[in-house]
Amino acid sequence: QVQLVESGGGLVQPGGSLRLSCTISGSIWRFNSVGWYRQAPGKQRELVARVFSTGPTYYADDVKNRSTASGDIDLNTVHLHMNSLKPEDTAVYYCNAREQDGTDYWGQGTQVTVSA
């Protein structure tokens, strides 16, 4: 059974940075891509970044140039590093792993609050 566990959320001041991590049980090689999503109160879940097994990493426009998504194959862990955080980045952040056939697996989410 696949399990995804996020960590690294919390309270961050505007302009600050954070690093989220997602540890995936089992081999990370089984997945076509691993992504980060977020959901703010009253809004739909949206894609933040997606790391593909081949090809460039995708970033949403509003996080591009201030975010880096990366994977540590040996530790079956993916990270999301975000800089210049804004209050509108406040959301629950979810890790997602997608298999070749489109099957999705989700973590439980980690809260990120950007506030002074």
Characteristic terms for this protein:
116 residues, mainly beta, 4-stranded antiparallel β-sheet, 11 strands
Our Rg estimate from Cα atoms comes to 13 Å
Determine the strand fraction and express it as a percent band: over 45%
Overall 3D form: globular
- Tell me the span between the first and last alpha carbons: 40 Å
The helix-strand sequence is EEEEEEEEEEE
Describe the structure concisely.
This protein has 116 residues and is mainly beta. 0% of the residues lie in helices and 53% in strands.
Structure report:
This protein is mainly β and 116 residues long. It is 0% helix and 53% strand. It has no helices and eleven strands. The chain has strands spanning 4-7, 10-12, 18-24, 31-39, 46-52, 58-59, 67-72, 77-82, 91-99, 104-106, 110-114. Strands 2, 4, 5, 6, 9, 10 and 11 form a seven-stranded mixed beta sheet that branches. A four-stranded antiparallel beta sheet has the order 1-3-8-7, with no helix packed on it. Strand 4 and strand 5 form a beta hairpin. The termini are far apart.
